Amino acid sequence: MRFFDSMQESGHEQVVWCRHAESGLRAIIAIHDTTLGPSLGGCRLMDYPSEEAALTDVLRLSRGMTYKAAMAGLDLGGGKAVILANPKDKSEVLFRAFGRFVHSLGGRYITAEDMNTTSREMEWIHRETPYVTGMPQSVGGSGDPGRVTAWGVYHGIRAALEHVYGTPDPKGRTIAIQGVGIVGFALARYLHEAGAKLAYADVREGNLGRATEAFGGTVLHGDEIYGADVDVIAPCAVGAVLDPKTIPAIRAPIVAGSANNQLADEERDGEALRKREIVYVPDYVLNAGGLINVFGELRRWPEDKALADTERIAETVKHVLEVANEQEIPTVLAANRVAEQRLAAVRSLKKLHLGR
Predict the structure, then answer these.
(1) Superfamily the domain 146-341 falls into
(2) Which CATH fold topology does 3-64+76-137 show?
(3) What pTM did the predictor assign?
(4) CA-CA distance, 22 to 92, in Å (whole number)?
(5) For residue range 128-156, what is the model confidence (pLDDT) as tens digits?
(6) Active-site annotation holder among 68, 80, 88, 350
(7) Phi/psi at 198 (nearest 5 deg)?
(8) pLDDT at 159 over 70
(9) 146-341 matches 3-64+76-137 in CATH topology
């Protein structure tokens, strides 16, 4: 991989490689765009197959955070961090070492929890830097943002249902959730309470058992979810699940979930979904609730404001779907254009000289 070429193609400002031998830390921090404000994005802990795979992931994820913040109307840029390690090898010193690298950036990057990291690790990072959010509620933070993320996904699904069926009511609709971890389980609760019928797919039997015990529903195995006769497929686990193999099998008229980077190839797979007349709600539009939540923590917003702002994701989804229809383009391209318009508008502002 030609690293600088990759950065230029994706528009990244800065990539920081972090190493601390004593703790075993190997991490990458990617800052995509700070036009709207400091970059913010979670810290993901994964045992990547290679450094190249980790770099590809962090570049793609940080770019998505720029667009997510822009679409959510937040004064934030896009950033992301990945730690290359086995999730079983978490330690205080590992995350404190990472926190020192975050602090060295002087606020250009603010970290938060992500895959395989929790509010406990954010506390360890906070011992070394104030540039961290998603702290436990016990110390004045907003806690796990998963519930708020799911709240945004729920309202986005309602907007998509209205677009397809003329009513946003999930009652009686069948929704298949791929991945019933923290976000997927919370989404299942909201949908169950609204009267939806549920189906689940997950590689963890424990997650499936917990969901069916709490909300009823059926279990789908492997790739059965793509061909299931449902109204909505909600990918809430790993990314890159929508590709030339899975898209032709989809029977649902709507795909809308929380997983990041659901399209294996944004241009190719977005167009494939459009041609099949499947309403795909771009993930970074739909899952912005977590970002709104942690931004609210930085601004000391009350929880009710974060939830109310997250509900407005439904209006954003409606706008994106309208743009896609009017311009006859894939929904992901429509969302990108809307986000880029806000970035360009703010970028055009003149700086005013301030007298001493």
Answers:
(1) NAD(P)-binding Rossmann-like Domain (3.40.50.720)
(2) Rossmann fold (3.40.50)
(3) 0.89
(4) 12
(5) 999 999 877 666 666 677 889 999 999 99
(6) 80
(7) -120, 150
(8) yes
(9) yes
- Around Cβ 6, how many Cβ atoms within 10 Å? 15
User: Would you kindly state where each structural domain of the chain is located, as residue ranges?
Assistant: 3-64+76-137, 146-341
80 is catalytic: yes
